[in-house]
Design brief:
Number of domains: 2
Distance between the termini: 76 Å
Strand content: under 5%
Helix content: over 70%
Number of strands: 0
Low-confidence stretches: none
């Protein structure tokens, strides 16, 4: 157990300190101090649109997978190449 504490003290504490000095660390600190940031209505609408488009793509992918699994996408002529 002492080894775990020593490793954390050696690497974890300085790592957290230097993380706080980076841009990402500053953003984390800001978020922790101020709570949630206000949401931009345009950004929320764009994310909703992307979610809708992703759901449509998932439906199309599911349809294509079912069609391939049932053999609907297989070629009807089994003779490939040659005369």
């Amino acid at each position: 157990m002492e080894g775990v504490i020593a490793v954390f003290a050696l690497f974890g504490v300085p790592g957290i300190y230097f993380l706080g000095k980076t841009d990402i660390g500053q953003a984390i600190v800001y978020r922790l101090r101020n709570g949630d940031v206000p949401q931009d209505a345009t950004l929320v609408a764009e994310v909703d649109e992307l979610r809708h488009r992703l759901a449509e793509m998932e439906e199309r992918l599911d349809f294509a997978e079912r069609a391939l699994a049932s053999g609907a996408g297989a070629p009807r002529n089994s003779h490939i190449g040659g005369a």
